[in-house]
Amino acid sequence: MLRFMALAFFSLIMILFFSGCTDFDEPNQLAFVLGTAIDRADNGEMEISHQVVITSQAPSKGGSFGGSNHFIILSAKGKDIYEAQQKIQRETSRRLMMNHRILIAISEEYFNQNDVRKIFDKLGRDPANNLRDIIVLIKGASAKQFLKMKHPMEPLSSIGEDKKMQTNAIRNFSSRTLIIETLSEGTRSMLPVIQIKPSKKGSNLMSTNTIVSKYAVLDKQLKVKGIVDDVEGAKVGWMSGNETVQGITIPWKDGIGYLSFRLNHLKRRIHAVRVEESKQIIMSVKAQAYLLENTTQLNLSEVDNMIVIQNYMNKQLEKEMQQTVDKVQNWGADVFGIGEYLHRKYPYWWKSKKEDWDQHFKEMDVKVQVNIELKSIGMIGKL
Amino acid sequence: MKIGSYPMFWMVSISSIIVSSFLPIRLAMEESRQDCWISMLLGGMIMMAATWIMLRVCMQNKDKTLVFFIKDLLGTLLGKTIVIVYFLLWLWQLSTLTTAMVEFQNLILLHNTPTIVLIVCTLFLAVYAVYRGGLTAISRCAEAIGPFFIIFCYSHLFLNFKYIDMKRILPIYADSGWIHILKGTFYSYNYIVDPTIILMLFFFAENKRTASRAILWGTAVAMIWGILSTLVVLFVTGPNLASELVHPTYYLTKFVTILNFIQNIDSFYVTFWMFGNFIKLSVYLFILSYGLSEWTGYKNWKLIACFMTIVWLAIVIYSSHHIRISHSFKNLYLIGYFYPFVYFGIPLLLWLIGSLRKAVKQPL
């Protein structure tokens, strides 16, 4: 019995030593970084800013986040990410924790003047990163300024941006996706852009007056080739295989009325026959449409009218999407993944083309085919 | 000290999955990129063949361990010398595995804990299991840990279902070609499964027929896991990123996010991996010390186990200070001569001699 007690006592003491408590930080010793901004600083250095949520502050009555600040911005300059981060850490009372980061904002200036691919090394090598955070490009202001902005609904601007993307665009803009796309030879990347307008009153509140969402089309070196607005960007997203478009509005033939549809089950297929000679690619997109608003004179209880608007919608959308494709093609950045498709289908042909794919992509003849099925006209025929 | 077939299955499959989880995928991926699952498949088949040959040898010498039957078949001097090669192999695997495991823990979880504490804890656990219970204790542990370990290993592959894109392994063959695929196999096959332990373990099996079936199944489960995880790594990350990953299967767990709620499950992976490692290390320590006791004729193998632990500790500490030693998986002498010699050369020779003897005896 005595021996058993001694053993039990001994093991209990050992648990204290061997449980790894030496490496453990209590939550009140941690600073949760939810957003990181990367800006360009002088002398080729970079400025890292961390948006840290202040956890010690209890939310005011009713759990709302209105009123005071719920975050602080910590920033420092350095030759690489780690150096800047260490500078921040030395000035901070809590250990910075990156595992829960949801957003990395990079300023346009940094994109233009530095090689963004270099930050991927830190993201991949350091096990503290989760690679689930989204990367956005900030236009019109520094990335740090974006982090400083207040969101009217959410406690932090980075949470707001993340939720906005989840609600509206299903495309995955995580840093992992960006790294995979950058490493592959036949796909170029697209990034969400947040354009910050100079505000007159100096208000820092995020609203439709101060920010505009766009998308940037990047080339292999991650330089910005062109920027499209969010409606067009959603279509590009659709054509690169994501369900980013949620609805469309098209003008009716007479130019007076409009038709609006909700779209779902978005599909995309790339198809090529004898690409060696014809260089022709067919991009066919499919979806199901539900009519939600009709300001034309048409009575849609008539099946003939339904067929007419379905065909008209397909034609109209085909025209619009063809324009978008032509535009992106002119920039020579294959965000649709056509190169990757050809790589998989014609691997031997691809070997000679992959080196200079951006140029070859410009010469391709990409044709859009739209096939949307009208599923429903809604609750009424015609009022 | 007899063990059933059921724990045998778990011991063989755990110790094979442990090696294949961190070495072969990376080595194959570097060479054959999106076709590395073919390399893994070929390598797995080669190692299945090796396991089968070793089982044949064991079946011919049911009542003896490797140390005795190699002496029988090759003569005392030659047999005793060749067995040393196996001892070295086990010692080498013990120390590389421990080093890799401790480094991994230091990198991922325990940044400040001194390495020596981790090494001593690991070694103490293994030697305690061997000293107190011998193979019986290890097999019981394997039986308890095995199901959880294997279920976790298989299930975590599918938690990334959201990001799986099967087209990422295309085009098959065209980009790499046979030379690269075979090169990938050549670099990786030695690390896919772990056949030599059965040369010692088979002697302890209660029912030889079911035990041999258990060993083959255990190897097959590990081999299938190796191929499946290679495929999933490719599906999720694509060949370009995958070929740069040092711990591909661990990386998979970091990507997991289900409903924005289940995230950061990598801590589970590390835990289960440690459990599996404990089984593997103690099995190795047991066969090494038992083999040495038979080799020297000194009956107290438990004392030898304690002594071997000190040697093992010394090697681990030494090799953790010399980076080259603990990272020489791609050493050409090792994979070109040493592994084929111990996995195929000697077992084939033993099998041949055994069969010849049988054939000579039977007509009389």
TrEMBL record, chain A:
Keyword terms: Germination, Lipoprotein, Membrane, Palmitate, Signal
Subcellular location: Membrane
Transmembrane residue ranges: none
InterPro entries reported in the protein's UniProt record: GerAC_N (IPR057336), Spore_GerAC-like (IPR008844), Spore_GerAC-like_C (IPR046953), Spore_GerAC_C_sf (IPR038501)
UniProt domain Spore germination GerAC-like C-terminal: residue ranges: 214-378
Keyword presence, Signal: yes
Domain spans labelled Spore germination protein N-terminal: 25-195
Main localization, broad class: membrane
Membrane topology note: Lipid-anchor
Tagged with keyword Signal: yes
Gene Ontology CC entries for this record: membrane
GO BP terms, alphabetized: spore germination
A Pfam family reported for this protein in Swiss-Prot or TrEMBL: Spore_GerAC
Signal peptide: 1-20
Assigned protein family: Belongs to the GerABKC lipoprotein family.
UniProt-recorded name of the protein: Ger(X)C family germination protein
Native source species: Paenibacillus taihuensis
UniProtKB/TrEMBL annotation, chain B:
Keywords (A to Z) from UniProt: Germination, Membrane, Transmembrane, Transmembrane helix, Transport
Keyword Magnesium: no
Recorded superkingdom: Bacteria
Membrane-crossing residue ranges in chain numbering: 7-25, 37-55, 67-92, 112-131, 143-164, 184-203, 215-236, 268-288, 300-320, 332-353
Coarse class of the protein's main subcellular location: membrane
GO biological process: spore germination
Pfam families from the UniProt entry: Spore_permease
Topological relation to the membrane, as annotated: Multi-pass membrane protein
GO cellular component: membrane
Listed InterPro entries: Spore_GerAB (IPR004761)
Name of the protein in question: Spore germination protein KB
Source organism of this protein record: Paenibacillus taihuensis
